[in-house]
């Protein structure tokens, strides 16, 4: 079985968010996929099997299967459209979040993703203790979004992972209005066995949606301010979905010789 390591939301290897992508003829057991995800120890390992109409795609962190992952979808589309179907410019993935379409447009891979309703919730002392800085606003969808006064607070914070686990939401995001990008964010995922996701595509289904409303603009350039860093081009649609686009860089191709 081939496994590809692809850095997503970047055009330079060793930056952006690395994902492992496994292209298979048939499904191994969930236990085997979980073991390989733990072995890779990346924020996501994607598993792909060809179907009659498109591909079936599943995502695993080192701790669990997840229902949506942006950077591993981008990495998977890069692999399919580069190595499996280089004559194509579009790929359909059947996932736990429905059918996801990815289109190659120049050097960008444009993902068609869902959004979810957001509601403002009270800022709490627990949020301040978890992030180390008190947010000025908090919004909850599938993930928690804590808004801070400036991007320097977001870039320099060292949150308490144990306290983050006790906050609402699957992922705890810190965000602020940016200077060179529309927004600057970081994504912490201790509930998914990931201390910090270097560039989180699925979280930006909500982060970009929030900033679109705040800035009154449909197109949002987002920067994830992790140590690796990466840019996400986001466009809110009238039908409530979102385009999230990014670049990808190949790092490695390997043969998995262990029996799954």
Which properties best describe this structure?
260 residues, alpha+beta, 18-stranded mixed sheet, Diaminopimelate Epimerase, Chain A, domain 1, 6 helices, single chain, 41% strand
Structure description:
- A hairpin with a 4-residue loop joins strand 4 (55-60) and strand 5 (65-66).
- Helix content is 22%, strand content 41%.
- The mean pLDDT is 96.
- The protein has helices at residues 30-40, 70-84, 125-131, 151-156, 161-165, 204-215; strands spanning 2-8, 17-24, 44-50, 55-60, 65-66, 90-95, 98-105, 108-114, 119-121, 137-140, 144-147, 172-177, 183-189, 194-197, 219-224, 230-236, 241-246, 248-255.
- The protein has an 18-stranded mixed sheet that branches.
- The N and C termini lie close together (9 Å).
- It folds into 2 domains: 2-111 and 246-255, Diaminopimelate Epimerase, Chain A, domain 1 (Roll), CATH 3.10.310; 119-239, Diaminopimelate Epimerase, Chain A, domain 1.
- The longest helix is centred in the first third of the chain and has 15 residues, at 70-84.
- It contains 6 helices and 18 strands.
- By secondary structure, the chain is α+β, with helices and mostly antiparallel strands.
- The radius of gyration is 18 Å and the shape is globular.
């Amino acid at each position: 079985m081939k496994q590809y390591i692809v850095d997503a939301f970047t055009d330079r290897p060793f930056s952006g968010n690395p994902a492992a992508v496994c292209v298979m003829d048939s499904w191994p057991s969930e236990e085997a996929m979980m073991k390989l995800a733990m072995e890779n120890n990346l924020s996501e390992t994607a598993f792909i099997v060809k179907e009659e109409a498109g591909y079936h795609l599943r995502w695993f962190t080192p701790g669990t299967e997840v229902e949506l992952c942006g950077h591993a979808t981008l990495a998977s589309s890069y692999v399919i459209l580069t190595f499996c179907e280089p004559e194509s410019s579009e790929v359909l993935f059947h996932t736990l979040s429905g059918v996801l379409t990815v289109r190659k447009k120049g050097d960008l891979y444009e993902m068609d993703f869902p959004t979810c309703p957001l509601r403002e919730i009270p800022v709490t002392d627990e949020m301040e203790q978890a992030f180390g800085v008190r947010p000025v606003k908090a919004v909850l969808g599938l993930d928690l979004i804590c808004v801070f006064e400036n991007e320097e607070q977001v870039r320099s914070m060292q949150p308490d992972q144990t306290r983050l686990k006790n906050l609402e939401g699957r992922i705890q995001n810190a965000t602020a209005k940016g200077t060179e990008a529309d927004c600057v964010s970081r994504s912490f995922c201790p509930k998914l066995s990931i201390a910090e996701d270097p560039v989180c595509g699925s979280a930006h289904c909500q982060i970009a949606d929030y900033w679109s409303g705040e800035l009154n603009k449909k197109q949002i350039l987002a920067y994830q301010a992790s140590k690796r860093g990466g840019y996400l081009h986001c466009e809110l649609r009238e039908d409530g979905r979102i385009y999230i686009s990014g670049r990808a860089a190949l790092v490695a191709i390997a043969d998995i010789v262990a029996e799954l």
